[in-house]
Amino acid sequence: MDTSFSISFGNLFAHLVDMKNEGKFELPTFDDISRDILDCVDESHADGSLKSEVKKNLDNYIIKDPDLIANLEKYKKHGKKLFILTNSEFYYAKLLLDYAVTPYLKEHKDWKDLFDYVITQAAKPRFFFDKLPFYRISPDTGAMYNLDGKFEPGVYQSGCAEYFTSKLKVTGDDILYVGDHIYGDIVRLKKDCAWRTALVIEELEEEVNKLTQTAPLTEKIQALMKDKAPLETEIVTLEDEDHLSKKNTNEKRIDELYDQVTRIDKQISEYIRKHNATFNPYWGEVMRCGNEESYFAGQVARYACVYTSTLNDILNSSPRYYFRSYRRTLAHEVI
User: Fold this and answer.
1) Taking CA atoms, which of 142, 204, 270, 316 is between 20 and 30 Å from 230?
2) Strand order in the sheet with 306-308
3) In what order do the strands lie in the sheet with 117-120?
């Protein structure tokens, strides 16, 4: 479960697994249940039933952030071009933009003035690798027209990344695309277009807070691991000596060392238990699986140029700021 969309799928599947195991209902195989749920969730997005619920009460579902709009206007003043690329149809996108963007604009009349290009029903990730045509949309009527002539700022439907970048006369390094779906927004985009990518990970804010909270425990664990390392090295050395000499001359010292290591391990285990209890009780940290990166974190590190808990984390920086990645230490560099 590494996207927000999969949360609803996971919850529905878990409930149906319980119902099947309880035997109160005659249900198909787990594979069939999984496929049926996926079809239903996909259909709820495609047929408008999910969006119709959102439309009924926007306050419940749409976050309004005046600071975000102010930051976007700041970037606009610095000469940056802004665009929206969404799989939603025009009328739904317009509804959300009218609700969450236009009321907070101070230097633009409405969202059409803020965003140079708004591309709806983009069919991501297909947008990034296919060659679908663009259609122009009238923002006043919603009428759609074939794109003839110049590709000017405005509202569009469908299209493809290749045409978009060629008409704007830019390269992938000139574009920063911000998305929140690791597959639909980031992985395929990076593979096919080489645009710069920023991944929004909503859980990251809580994750960072908990890492800060558990920092003292982490320091204690690392200190104990450092204390344990020479003891284990000495054990290996003494056991090698006894094995080669076929004598047990170091047995007493080896037993003493094992006792020390065991005491340290017990301390480490207790600190690790306290550390893990701070995070999700079922799968721990979002970005870690024990000492290793989680599968999700591995994808983030490989395909996202930057990642953040909210777009404002990036926009609060100067539009001229240059983000540099940290040098990742490889195993052979630890000397």
Assistant:
1) 270
2) 176-179, 196-200, 306-308
3) 83-85, 117-120, 154-158, 134-137, 144-146
Of 171, 217, 215, 168, the closest CA to residue 193 belongs to 171
Of 263, 189, 197, nearest in space to 231 by CA: 263
Long-range contacts of 68-73 (CB under 8 A, 24+ apart): 68/311, 68/312, 68/315, 69/101, 69/104, 69/105, 69/114, 70/104, 70/106, 71/312, 71/315, 71/316, 72/114, 72/315, 73/105, 73/106, 73/107, 73/108, 73/114
User: pTM of the prediction?
Assistant: 0.86
Give the whole-angstrom CA distance, residue 122 versus residue 125: 8
| Per-residue pLDDT, 335 | 76
DSSP state of 294: P
Determine contact, residues 223/229, Cβ cutoff 8 Å. Answer: no
Contact in structure between 306 and 297 (CB atoms under 8 Å): no
Q: Domains, the chain, ranges and CATH?
A: 5-47 (no CATH), 64-170 (3.40.50.1000), 205-285 (1.20.58.1160)
Dig out the tokens for 149 from the structure.
């002539």
DSSP code at position 186: I
| Under 8 Å between Cβ of 133 and 147 | yes
Q: Cα(272)–Cα(276) distance, rounded to whole angstroms? A: 6
Residues 6+ apart with CB under 8 A from 184: 3, 87, 124, 125
Average pLDDT over residues 187-206: 90
Distance CA 241, CA 256 (A): 16
pLDDT given at position 100: 96
Bridge partners (DSSP) listed for residue 117: 83, 154
Residue 14 pLDDT: 94
d(CA 67, CA 64): 9
pLDDT, tens digit, 9 for 90 and up, residues 307-331 = 999 999 999 988 888 888 888 888 8
Q: Say how far residue 114 (Cα) sits from the centre of its chain.
A: 26
